[in-house]
Amino acid sequence: MLDAKIPAGPLKDKWTSHKNKIRLVNPANKRKYRVIVVGTGLAGASAAASLAERGYNVDAFCFQDSPRRAHSIAAQGGINAAKNYPNDGDSVYRLFYDTIKGGDFRSREANVYRLAEVSNGIIDQCVAQGVPFAREYSGYLDNRSFGGAQVSRTFYARGQTGQQLLLGAYSALMKDAGKGTVTMHPRAEMLDHVVVDGKAKGIITRCLLTGKISAHAADAVVLATGGYANVFYLSTNAKASNVTAVWRAHKKGAFFANPCYTQIHPTCIPVHGDYQSKLTLMSESLRNDGRVWVPKNKGDSRRPSAIPENERDYFLERKYPAFGNLVPRDLASRNAKEQCDQGKGVGPTGHAVYLDLGESLGRLGRDVIRERYDNLFEMYERITGMDAYKEPMMIYPAPHYTMGGLWVDYNLMSNLPGLFVLGEANFSDHGANRLGASALLQGLADGYFILPYTIGDYLAVQPPGKADTGHPAFGEAREAAVRRTGDLLKINGKKTPDEFHRELGRLLWEKCGMSRREDGLKEALKKIPAIREEFWRNLLVPGSGEEFNQTLERAGRVADFLEFAGLMVRDALERKESCGGHFREESRTPEGEALRDDANFAYVAAWEFKGAGREPVLHKEPLAFEEVHLATRNYK
Amino acid sequence: MAKTINLTLHVWRQKGTQDKGRFEVYKAEGIDTDMSFLEMLDVVNERLIKEGKEPVAFDHDCREGICGACGAVVNGRPHGPMDKTTLCQLHMRRFKDNDTITIEPWRARGFPVVKDLVVDRSAFDQIMAAGGFISVKTGSAPEANTVPVRRQDAETAMDAAACIGCGACVAACPNASAMLFVGAKVSHFGLLPQGRVEAKERVRGMVARMDAEGFGNCSNHYECEAACPKGISVSTIARMNREYLSSELAE
Ligand SMILES: Cc1cc2nc3c(=O)[nH]c(=O)nc-3n(C[C@H](O)[C@H](O)[C@H](O)COP(=O)(O)OP(=O)(O)OC[C@H]3O[C@@H](n4cnc5c(N)ncnc54)[C@H](O)[C@@H]3O)c2cc1C
Ligand code: FES
């Protein structure tokens, strides 16, 4: 019943032949269609702008005060493309292969190949928009390398690549807003979906300034609402990133795919106190010039510079000589945890390892290092009060990205007709582990180059302008949202939303974080409902619903995290193999590396919601590999 | 090394745009000096909520100095005492035990107060919509390396493009001018060959919109540059003025 609608034919021709065959909407008719785009990160902003250029009417929503502030703005390192400018043997095929392999063979070949195929067009598009990518003295574009690849294919704009790409997409969006083809709705939080006759026809939003809850109708709804790593409370994501939009869609019938695939990023600034509100990423690009190590001896508390070379363990270089410090994220993270679990961790908490740029500073000089990473060094200094030019940085893994998301077919449409899902919010391209610099790629691929075609295939057979907020389904959904907001406000208990969120986060980090075990997962499955129960009994939200009320916003998001968390753990329990970021302690090789089980788990787990308090149903989309053969990832 | 300090906060409280607003005094005790300024406010807010009071509203999201959401005037300076630092990146080790800290919203005609420290900066989006773009349609771009760009130009463009749109420049300016914001965008595009095509329309459109949104003029105080968390240079204003003049001459 789950049909991914992957076009027939050879892998490299699929996208082209699909584009040639799919239905088109007549240009004169496009303006009769209205499309809602929720989210203005890379995926949403690029989609909204591209759809408007094609002639559709677009309503775009975000909860920030301006679309330019979407979480994508914070991406530091870069964006991959197969341009092969450095002439180091890169190609579309190689980018495809690295991404499939990096994802530990848990993604769809056809989607990933398409991603690699459109990558070059994205760089062209961004340059034309004025994105100031780094250049060589010749005036041509510069590249650097990133984890999980042996070629230099990452384009970057200092340490602010996400910012510059988003500002590019945002400026395109504002151009269309100026023309009136996009109506921008900032400070609007989507609270629910409206489904009419089995099709996505609109959304319910709350205006964060006035509290007004209203209904919006459209011919199709696009969700580009980002990832759910904040389910762990502490993560590298922006504070307000949340699962609400996709979770609400799930509750209205959209399948949630691979919720247990979460990425823990190896190079973040370690936790330092209970009050901590978020974790800060130090871009993975630092691993290009930095070496990761711990003292060879447990409990060695000397200053790092006082520890001689032969008493340091460069554990990544030792265990994975071929990739060294550039192994994929899941491996780098797990190995750091392992060292700390063995008592070799450093810093005041023992939950940290060194990321040392000392050798590169010596080899390349301070100026080169400053040019490459100055903003990161500065950020580190601000947060920790320490100077990384003098002493190595201390880092520890942190929740960062979520590969799981709403299930979509090749057209990026969920099983709920008319609901499209883009960017981090869908599950589509990264399998069980995402390679660095490929989320920005995916967001823009989805928004600029894929959705603008594939949405036509759906709309072409829908009579335009039929969605109407007068339909009873809109009234009902609006009423439900009003009721729920009221419910949150009237509990009048004793604990703040953040207290519940922290409690949930700690539980998940311990039981469903970097490593997972059956008994721990079962324990979490028991504890989550208890936290949820207390939440609805003992929550305290001051103020009213008819005003700007940030505690209320937070409460709504935490309520959804509390529901979603159960599904994530459920999925982790069901997947008894280790793959990518999902490490089941029961499934490992004699050397302790993750052990995949292709015979039993080479599928996408797509969960169907069956009602509150009822067991969700698992649908399996088998993954067929025609081009690559399933190999054990080997970075040694 | 981390230690804890006690502070007295004078915080601007204003229920809504129409409310007159006033300062309220709060004690912030046992503040860990490793906390960020916003984490300190979180702690104060958690305590307020528990006392059944309304927490202090403030905008924030990334908490790493890049989204431009946060910002308040701290002891008279936008984003507080540290140069080139957003409020979310300011850490409490910059303060001393028993300090008194005054915290107010951006105050400018173009940025009406929404609540407490939250202001309405949508005027910036309007200015962007009036010309802050290059009109290339998706899919019609030439191969990226077709036009080389002098490295120096690309770097200077990037310096200007680093603007996070926080509005500190406006808050710092005695005339509440948005010239640094507009100058940065005009310079970013103007320095790149692909941005030259629409340079005249861009500067005219953005400047007209800036005036219409109620921002004041620049009278060379340079407070904006001093307050800018990204170190955007006032030379971008000079560039904008030059572009504006040449666009008028072309009329
Ligand atoms: C610190 C950091 C560094 C990173 N660096 C890199 C990198 O170097 N390279 C790379 O490829 N990737 C990187 N990533 C990952 C990448 O940034 C993200 O995966 C990507 O930007 C997600 O884009 P998006 O468009 O899917 O969603 P987002 O940018 O998260 O945007 C989500 C949008 O949805 C809106 N939204 C969400 N929920 C609602 C709701 N209920 N109602 C209304 N609006 C809503 C938000 O307002 C926002 O506009 C990094 C991530 C982090 C955290
Ligand atoms: S919260 Fe994003 S810049 Fe401060």
Describe, in plain words, how this protein is organized in 3D.
With 636 residues, chain A is α+β, with helices and mostly antiparallel strands. Among the domains of chain A are: 266-398, Succinate dehydrogenase/fumarate reductase flavoprotein, catalytic domain (Flavocytochrome C3, Chain A, domain 1), CATH 3.90.700.10; 473-597, Fumarate reductase/succinate dehydrogenase flavoprotein-like, C-terminal domain (Methane Monooxygenase Hydroxylase, Chain G, domain 1), CATH 1.20.58. Chain A contains 18 helices and 19 strands. Chain A has helices at 14-21, 27-30, 42-54, 92-102, 109-129, 161-179, 244-251, 286-289, 315-319, 329-341, 358-364, 366-384, 439-459, 472-490, 497-512, 518-538, 550-574, 598-601, and strands at 34-38, 57-61, 79-80, 154-155, 182-185, 188-196, 199-207, 213-217, 220-223, 256-257, 262-268, 291-295, 312-313, 353-356, 393-402, 405-406, 419-421, 603-608, 617-622. In chain A, the strands form five sheets. Chain A has a five-stranded parallel sheet with strand order 5-2-1-9-17. In chain A, a hairpin with a 5-residue loop joins strand 7 (199-207) and strand 8 (213-217). The two termini of chain A are 40 Å apart. The mean pLDDT of chain A is 95. With 251 residues, chain B is α+β, with helices and mostly antiparallel strands. Chain B is built from nine helices and seven strands, in the order ββαβββββαααααααα. In chain B, helix 2 runs antiparallel to helix 7, helix 3 runs antiparallel to helix 5 (179-190) and helix 7 packs across helix 9. Chain B is elongated, with a radius of gyration of 20 Å. The termini of chain B are far apart. The mean pLDDT of chain B is 96. Chains A and B meet through helix 3, helix 5, helix 6, helix 12 and helix 13 of A and helix 1, helix 2 and helix 3 of B.
Q: Which spans of chain B of ≥5 residues are poorly predicted at pLDDT below 50?
A: none
CATH architecture of one domain in chain A: Alpha-Beta Complex
Total count of domains of chain B: 2
The largest sheet of chain B is: 5 strands, mixed
Bound molecules: flavin-adenine dinucleotide, FE2/S2 (inorganic) cluster
| Uncertain stretches of chain A | none
Shape of chain A: globular
| Class per helix and strand makeup of chain B | alpha+beta
C-alpha geometry of chain B: elongated
CATH architecture of the largest domain in chain B: Orthogonal Bundle
Distance from first to last alpha carbon of chain A: 40 Å
Count of helical regions of chain A: 18
Q: Termini distance of chain B?
A: 62 Å
Mean pLDDT of chain B: 96
Strand fraction of chain B: 5-15%
Assembly type of the chains comes to: heterodimer
| CATH homologous superfamily placement of the largest domain in chain B | Alpha-helical ferredoxin
* Main sheet overview of chain A: 5 strands, parallel
What is the helix content of chain B?
25-40%
Taken in chain order, the helices and strands of chain B follow as EEHEEEEEHHHHHHHH
Per CATH, the class of one domain in chain A reads Alpha Beta
